[in-house]
Design goal:
heterodimer; A: 163 residues; mainly alpha; two-stranded antiparallel sheet; B: 38 residues; 74% helix
Chain lengths: 163, 38
């Protein structure tokens, strides 16, 4: 911050930062409007945006895989690690792009499993410390977590859509 | 995705509020005598 003009008496301070911020307020406004529109698009087309995310992630995985393939030719040391990484990324990308529903199903199963384990852990901890204040909060959180885990597990794509 | 959509919309509202706050705070700051830093 460069302060070129300071009058201590009436606290007038002029600096480059304030002028910069002043000139950039419109960018913040535009970013805010774009965010609201993006949020509306996501809410209006939840399933489509979810699949769009999967396609995007698949493309990113493929791109990273290709970069690692290039790395195997460029690197001078052991080549097995970039080759292995490339194989993992390329395989994942190749699976994700033609079968997005399978990707969502597996992702949702993992999310459900995570919620289930976290819920059980919360209940066990809550019951272990019943003498503590507000121990029942953990119990409620645990039961809620298990309900979330059990609810969507039968319907692929649902936990991601709802979350 | 519902949560993501709501989250992005809320962040957009916060950004718009921040934009107007910045405009208000530095509106004519060169001559307004507003304290920016003490």
């Amino acid at each position: 911050m460069v302060i070129d003009h300071v009058i201590v008496g009436d606290m007038t301070v002029r600096d480059e930062r304030s002028a910069q911020l002043r000139s950039q307020w419109a960018y913040l406004l535009i970013a805010g409007i774009v965010s609201i529109l993006l949020g509306l698009v996501i809410l209006a087309w939840r399933s489509q945006t979810l699949y769009a995310l999967v396609y995007f992630a698949g493309a990113v995985f493929l791109f990273i895989g290709i970069l690692h393939v290039i790395d195997t030719f460029v690197t001078t040391g052991d080549r097995w690690l970039p080759l292995l990484t490339a194989a993992v990324f390329l395989t994942t990308g190749i699976i994700m792009l033609p079968w997005p529903h399978v990707t969502l199903f597996i992702t949702d199963l993992l999310i459900a499993l995570d919620f289930l384990l976290w819920g059980v852990l919360q209940i066990v901890k809550a019951l272990e410390y019943t003498t503590a204040r507000l121990w029942w909060v953990g119990l409620i959180a645990g039961v809620g977590s298990i309900l979330i885990a059990c609810g969507p597990s039968g319907t692929p794509g649902m936990p991601s859509s709802s979350l | 995705m519902t949560l993501l959509g709501i989250w992005i919309m809320l962040s957009g509202i916060v950004e718009i509020i921040a934009a107007f706050a910045v405009r208000h705070a530095f509106d004519g700051s060169e001559h307004s005598g507003r304290p920016i830093a003490a």
